[in-house]
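Protocol step 4 of 5: obtain the predicted structure for the target chain.
Materials: sequence only (see below). No template structures provided, no constraints applied. The aim of this step is simply to have a reference model before the mutagenesis design in step 5. Sequence pasted as it appears in the construct record:
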Amino acid sequence: MELLVASAVGMMTTVGVYLILQQRTFPIIVGLTLLSYAVNVFLFSAGRLVVDRPPIISDADAYTDPLPQALVLTAIVISFGMTALIVVLALRGFLETENDTADLPAEDLAPETEADK
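Step 4 output (C-alpha cells):
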C-alpha cells in the first residue's frame, strides 16, 4: 500500500511539474492543482492513519493523530483559494491581451535601441 501511495504522489508531482512548464495558462492551472493534490495525499499519508479509530482523544484505548487531518483540511482550503485566484488572473490576462500564453511578447523582451526612439 505504501508503494501505491508513494507512486501516486510521485506521478501527480511529475505531471504537475510538466504541466506547469507549458506555455498556455490552462495547463499551468491544472498543474498547480495536481501539485496541491500531491501535497494533500503526502500529508495525509504521512500521518500514519489507523482504520476504525477515533481522531480525538477519548476513553478509547487507541486513537488516530488528528494533526494530519487538520493539515490536509487547511491545505485544501488554501489550494482552493489559490486556484480561484489563478483562474481569475488568467482570465483577466486573456481578456486584456486576447492571448492565453504565459510568456511575454517579443517586443517586451527586446531592449529599446536608439533606432526605436
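Step 4 remarks: Residues 2-102 form a domain with the Helix Hairpins fold (CATH 1.10.287). The chain has one domain: 2-102.
Proceed to step 5.
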